[in-house]
Amino acid sequence: MLSWLPYAVAGWIFLVGCYGLVTSRHLVHTVVCLNVVQSSTYLLLLAVGWTRGGTAPIFADIGRSRSVTDPVVQAMTLTDIVVGAAVTALLLALTVQIAKRRGTVDPRALRSFEQESEE
Amino acid sequence: MSAPGGLVEQLPVLLVVVPLGAAALVAALGHWTPRLVADAVAVLVAAVASAGAAWLVVEAGGGRVVTWLSGWSPGVLGGTGGTGSSGGTGGHESVGIVLVADRTAAMLVLAAGVLVLAGLLFSWRYLEETSATYHALMLLFLAALSGFALAGDLFDAFVWFELMGAAAYALAGMRVEEPRSIFAAVELGVVNTLGASLTLVGITLLYARTGELALAYVGERLRAQPADALVGFAFALLVVGALVKAAVVPFHFWTADAEAAAPTPVCAVLSGAMVSMGVYAVARWWRVAFDGVLPHATVEHLLMVLGAVTALVGAVMCVYQRHVKRLLAYSTISHMGVAMLGVGLLDEHGTAAAVAYLLGHACTKGPLFLGSGVLLNRYGTVDEHALFGQGRGRWLTGSVFVLGGLGLAGLPALGLWWGKATLEHALSVAGAPWAVAVVVAAGALTSGSVLRLTARVFLGLGADPRARGEGEEPEEPEEAEEPEEAEEPEEPEEPEPVGYRTIALMVAPAWLLLAAGAALALVPWVHRAGATAGAVFADRQGYVDAVLHPDRPHAGLVGHEETVWTGSGLALAGLTLVLALLVAAAALWAPRLRAWPPGRVAARAVRPVVGGLHQVHRADLPEQVAWLLAGAAVLAVVVGR
What we know:
With 119 residues, chain A is mainly alpha-helical. Chain A contains 3 helices and no strands. The termini of chain A are far apart. The two termini of chain B are 38 Å apart. Classes of the chains: A mainly alpha (119), B mainly alpha (641). Chains A and B meet through helix 1, helix 2 and helix 3 of A and helix 5, helix 6, helix 9 and helix 23 of B.
């Protein structure tokens, strides 16, 4: 019953994040949207590892026969969160630099200089 | 097959751990020690890592060095998994993480090591005022590249993939050489992270289906049941991240900006090693996990079309560039498309040729980037028009451009010769003569562009582009440059003249790479080793056995060596060179050519194509994301159907 719901929510969060990225007018907003996209992968991972009636995979105080959720995806989610946090911090630091040097953080105003370097 | 001897088995681990540990050490001690210490440690570690990788190339031979980290091999848990073949998350065969080093992986690690070494040697004089953070990041970059090449586990590969990206974003943004491109590092970061997220979704779907992360297990489980749309969808998402890294159209927009803005030694590593890893990942993942699971023809056509489009778009954009580093970046895109053609054949010879091409490309593009760094250092600009005639008689730097430019055409005895000759052979044997034409066209256009800029800068040949203006089409687009572009461009390099010795010290690493390229082209052992590497790479069952059944005897493979020095290869190299010279000459004397009626017709015919490409390539970040998502959707539809 409703076992598809987490997948649908993960898909929805992914799409919302992508919509934000495509329509973004502010780099901080862009970076947060990227974070939203990444969160959808956390949810997807956890949904994959979920077992009906499963408990936390800590075997110290439960019997070996108890059904548990998959610890591998939880470890992956944690790793993913750490990686995501590092990338977010880095991108925000770069955004601060851009704001200082260029006086704008609108990704549409910050075009590349492709046009000036055409032969 | 695990090679005898404990040290060899630990070699793949050491190739990751040593640069990683050294990076931490350099970052920690950097504040208290003089710059020279950071330089010395970083160079030493990169040299040791390269030597280790070379040793691994030899040791891997016709087999593989398989290492389960901390001894968590599949047997350790006593087979907790049960049958588990029905899928679902129930039965893990293993929870360990495995590194699988075959000769192909080892060769790519070696290339990364040599490029980082050359980059660090170059920056000794080039980046006069930099902190130890730079050295730490370069070593981190090397560790991530090595880890990615050696990973035999999908999630492990993903982590290295992201770490490689993070090191690249930080390096690209730490010292922006083109002030207008300060934005490039963010672009690189957002686009690559989004691609990596899609890859992670693909990995998650595969895990949901197979309950495994080790590539060998994933492959075995996928083959146990008929593939459905989910598997195709997972493959499409998985490769999107790799295609973003590989700068394949339409995921390539970040490349030109990042390689224009990043410090030049970083560009050499980006375009020689990181981009190559994307191509390698597609080949590896396909071969071990999806070969025989997904329809062969669909994937072959998809990759061949992507490769051909990338090769041609990159090459045309390359011709129409006057910013030397952007020009080289577009040429990188083009050559990655060519390598993708080899991977797209999905056979032993195509992959072997593609890897040879990647190695040759690293040894050709690396020196060119370093050469452009010398120009920037010396003249404070890399604008081809501003540099017109400035380099007359400066053949110390000019020679790098001449050899690099000729090298891009795949001239015998230069870096790309081995890869280009074997690739053309593989393509024509596989019955794809049109792809051979694409290879020749990409080589001619990219080589012609570099030869044109060499002729302008070092010989002062052709019409002086600074004096031009009357023949220029009034192609000013409606959206004029924003006023804030008028910001004072701060010169990142000291423009004052530097001594001959300093220049020689900067040119030396470029020559080191060119010499390595010549070795690739000329040493018969390398060609034999490459053929064996291709045979081992293509041996899916051997890979699975080496990981899953290390006790099962496995005979070392010996590849069937293709002769590199064939008449057709030489003829095609000659043809490419002639076309490259024509391209260069046409560009140098473009105004005169346009005055000539057939020239005018031709110019009018190409203008809409080139104008359209230019328009597309002015994409801002949201547009780049849209291209990425559209590309991913098309891939998913084509493969998941």
